[in-house]
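Suppose you are handed a protein chain with no further information: no name, no annotation, nothing but its sequence. What can you learn? This example shows the usual starting point.
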Amino acid sequence: MSNISYFAIKTILIYEVKDFFKEFQFNIIAPLINTLLFVIILSTIENYYSIPSEGSSYINFLVPGIIMMVVMQTSFNHLSEIIINMKQIGSFNDYLMSPISRIEIFCSFILSSLVVCFFIGMINLIVLSMFTNFQDINYFRLFYYLILSIIVFSSIGAVTGFLSFTWDVQSTVSNFIIVPITFLSGTFFSIDTLNYKWKIIFEYNPFYHLVSGFRGAFISNNLLNTNTHIYIIVMTILILLISLFIFNKGYKVIY
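A reasonable first move is to predict its three-dimensional structure. Written in structure tokens, the prediction is:
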């Protein structure tokens, strides 16, 4: 543990967090407006149509899913965009040549993403709470699933940025993998409305369980299945370790 450069990790962490908040109008306000539009439009639709939502109002069902969708997408985009941008301007080479390990660089990026995306999640929760009437919130469960989701998607984003040299690769992964995952993991609908064959797919989709677990923090009688919990933990650790291995091993990561 004595070989770990905590000062370097702290320096990178503070720099990345400051850099994120420096452009708050693009990183915070713009996504928040998009989220508000989602909620306003769907809440208007609910006034005219009955939408199945696991026993609660559709807006109470929708808001946790919207928050998780925003956090997942932000977690991926934040690190993948940072690393690709650093590669293109040449500053990533400085990180790799500095007297700190790639594991320390990776940990710094993940920690910065945790701070940034946790803030994004809380801001969205505060603003969107105006549209809901949640009676009792399990904050431990809320923070727990929020942090797990950030770790998973930040790890995927870090690897995508690490192995990519152009924005084309990043946007391809984002548009064809990350966005469909966040939209089709029970964000806008209950799996109880699906056909049995489709329901089986969702039951083995770890990202669905992240969204469902987070949503359960807003439902007082929602119990956590032990097997599901273990499944999510194993998946999170596996993705984190694979990302850490790729980041540490590296191959043609710079020009």
